[in-house]
Specification:
alpha+beta, 4-stranded antiparallel beta sheet, 10 strands, 31% helix, elongated
Length: 175
Amino acid sequence: MRRADKRGVTLVELLIAVSIFAFIVASAYLLLRSFNKTYSRGMSQAAIRQKKRLLLRVITKDISSMYRQCKGATDSLDFYSLIIRGDTNHLSEVHYRFSNGNLYRAFELDSDEDLSTRGQEEVLLSGLKAFDFSYLLNGSWSGTWSQDGLPEAVKILLEWRDGGQLEVALDVMTD
């Protein structure tokens, strides 16, 4: 006796359907994974850019408030800064130095007026390949500076190990 009405699916049809479904799921997974990697990389780069902006803001604020008796080399800068908070002026010491791929900053509010002592040092930025200060003195750039007067400007060169580079010249406020 033959069956005229066939219902159901054959094994071949089932295997084809499962294969198509597996291909669609695998493609969606790869697409989602690719999107996730791109998003993570973008967020990481945005965090690095934000850190660079904050670093530049701190350095700009410090250098623009240079006050007196300063000295500098290509890898370090020590100076007094005049900080105004409310109606009170504070003479503060600011120290920058570059060592082993890290940029360090020490800050001491209400200075003891001895540049050889330093406040607590913090790492401002790590992962640097190079960091250089140069100083505009009497119209020409120099790698060192040790005098009572202030330079006209300070140039900063930052080079990261990953290949990024930033060079900026900051004017020093003079009377």
